[in-house]
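Chapter review: from sequence to fold.
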Amino acid sequence: MITPESATGQARATPTRPTQARLARVPELTALFWVLKVLTTGMGETASDYLAHTIGAVLAVGLSGLALVAALAMQLAAKRYVPWIYWTAVAMVSVFGTVAADVAHVGFGVPYAVSTVGFAVVLALLLGLWHRLEGTLSVHSIDTRRREAFYWATVLTTFALGTAAGDLTAVVLGLGYLGSAVLFAAAFAVPALGYWRLRRGPVLAFWTAYVITRPLGASVADWMGVSAARGGLAFGTGLVTVVWAAAIAGIVGWAVTSGRARPAALD
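The token string follows.
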């Protein structure tokens, strides 16, 4: 049979499907991401305080550490971004990171100023090593186990740093929890506006904002949970933990069912 190709002596190109974009193992960076980030930080703060006062700091560190290992194992074993697994891992990082920072201060007497500087140095070294080995710090490049391992190590360090910084401003500098929340909300707006308006330094803006959301969420949650004598609303750390955890679960569930829980596209 004579086909159009044979009649012209040229082969017609076979239509192909457009190549599907590769996807990262972390969420798309939308407003929803930042809302959940703040909620997980606050929940982790009050959960760690509640556990430390009910079962003791040592046992709280051990149990939260085991929960963190289990959550990260599930995250690293997943072959794609799974919202429930990812945000569970973030929540466990928040709890463990808070307990670890608190133990450094209460258990070993490390001043908040010292622990803040110390965690900042660790974070800088970690980011430097990550960039040297991988050539990028963008969350839009996380598609290998090693890059994801760097990501979670960095996330854990930012939580510990944010915890120490939040306690430093609230307790040592005397701003209180509400004052600290206002301070960090203003600080969060700086990299956010710098990126959205100028479109410059997206990687630096992301990690700066990521660090700041830790003391922001923790300060708000502490303000809601601590006693009136400490400048709070006295709802109790247990109640605040349950309410914020329910909010996280509800938002993640809504994002999944509405199709808004999307992974970040890779560079």
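Two observations follow directly from the output. Confidence is low (pLDDT under 50) at residues 1-21. Residues 149 and 196 are 28 Å apart (CA to CA).
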